[in-house]
Amino acid sequence: MQRRRLTSKIKRATPLRFIALSFFSQIGLIAASAERGLWLAGLFFFMGCAPSNTHTKETPLLKIGESVLLPSELARHTRQYAPSDSATQAALFLEDWRHTTSLYEQALQAGEQNDEETQRLVEKSRRRIIAERFVERKLQDALKEGYFRIDSAEVKAYYEEMSAALVCRETMFRLLRLYTIHADTALRLRQALVARLNSDSLFNLVMSRAPETTELNQLAFERATQFKTLTQLHLESENLHAILERMRPGDISPVLKLSDSLFIVMRLEELVASGQPKTLAQAFPEILERLRIIKQKRFVDSLASRLKNSL
């Protein structure tokens, strides 16, 4: 019950890089290697130097032949990434656009668009893209209407039917990691873990004691509700791997230094050995995902079947 209340308090957090790269230093590196000043202009747009009003006429960032890259297109691509990655992703996108567009313009000059097989493949891709976008929108609408809602009775029924298949292929860990930029704060957080505060109290304490790493700790609390393999944990160093492998459920690590400005302390909540059957609680997130996929597939199949048999 505490875990459910806690999860409801946590906003979906975008995963942060533990040592954020300086935005301006990335721009300096990119500008130094760029052949044109437009690379820098594109990145400056993303940082907010270009007008944000989409109704005004946009000045192209790049132009090759008749193809142009507008700031809004770059913005749509980069907004899905964390701020610490934005400059790098913008540079990669610009380089890919220049490469692909150069080949595309040469293909047009050579008349490739008039080739019969090319036209067939383009039409095939067009139909697929339109269909995928249609399905995506329909799935979003159905999600808002609660079509994919799953209750505990469904999960329990699935578990009873499929429990023999719900076995840990690898050792699974449920691990809580707490982050702070101060060593003394890390020691206080470790003391709180030793004191076994309840989930809500611990969450509130961490948020108040380590405001600089709020988003990182929100994500850590969310992930601590899930079982993950050693690979899926994405531990920050080999040292953490070695320490975790020696830990038993309930053990708390010493305060560890990840960098000059980041410290971590860990508590192993639960462990399920390889080959061991999962309990209902341990299998719950996996079953939820399986049932959601099943319902989504049925929904998409029902959409497709509406016109399949009309001919």
Structure write-up:
- The protein folds into three domains: 101 residues, no CATH class; 49 residues, no CATH class; 105 residues, Chitinase A, domain 3 (Roll), CATH 3.10.50.40.
- 57% of the residues lie in helices and 10% in strands.
- It has 13 helices and six strands.
- The strands form two sheets. The protein has a four-stranded antiparallel beta sheet with strand order 4-3-6-5.
- Strand 1 and strand 2 form a beta hairpin.
- The protein is extended, with a radius of gyration of 25 Å.
Mean pLDDT: 81
What number of domains? Answer: 3
Structural class by secondary-structure content: alpha+beta
Strand content: 5-15%
* C-alpha end-to-end distance: 53 Å
Radius of gyration: 25 Å
The CATH architecture of the largest domain is Roll
Largest sheet: 4 strands, antiparallel
CATH class of the largest domain: Alpha Beta
Instruction: Return the CATH topology of the largest domain.
Output: Chitinase A, domain 3
